[in-house]
Amino acid sequence: MKNFAFTKINYILLAIGFIIIIIGFVLMSGDSTTEEAFNPDIFSDTRIKVAPMVCLFGFLFEIVAILWPARKNKQK
């Protein structure tokens, strides 16, 4: 049996963190301001405060997922 750097739980946690990051970027997206019309939604709390915090949490969660220790099963 090969010894991989990550276990199954590491990959699951990495996937969860990746999904959280994607959710943060989706929250940041939206219509932009054009030359013809100003869109005040670009300064909404969701796009300026909430979405970056969600992304930051996702990146921190990725660090935790990478550093998550593997359980050592010692069988005789």
The total beta strand count reads 0
Structural class: mainly alpha
Specify the overall morphology.
rod-shaped
Helix content: 55-70%
- In whole angstroms, how far apart are the ends? 16 Å
Mean pLDDT: 89
- Unreliable stretches covering 5 or more consecutive residues: none
Give the percentage of residues in beta strands.
under 5%
Question: Helical element count?
Answer: 2
Largest sheet, described in full?
Answer: none
Order of secondary-structure elements: HH
Please compute the radius of gyration using only Cα atoms. Answer: 19 Å
Question: If you had to describe this structure to a student in words, what would you say it looks like?
Answer:
By secondary structure, this protein is mostly helical. It is 58% helix and 0% strand. It has 2 helices and no strands. The protein has helices at residues 8-28, 45-67. Helix 1 runs antiparallel to helix 2. The longest helix is centred in the last third of the chain and has 23 residues, at 45-67. The protein is rod-shaped, with a radius of gyration of 19 Å. The model has no long low-confidence stretch (mean pLDDT 89).
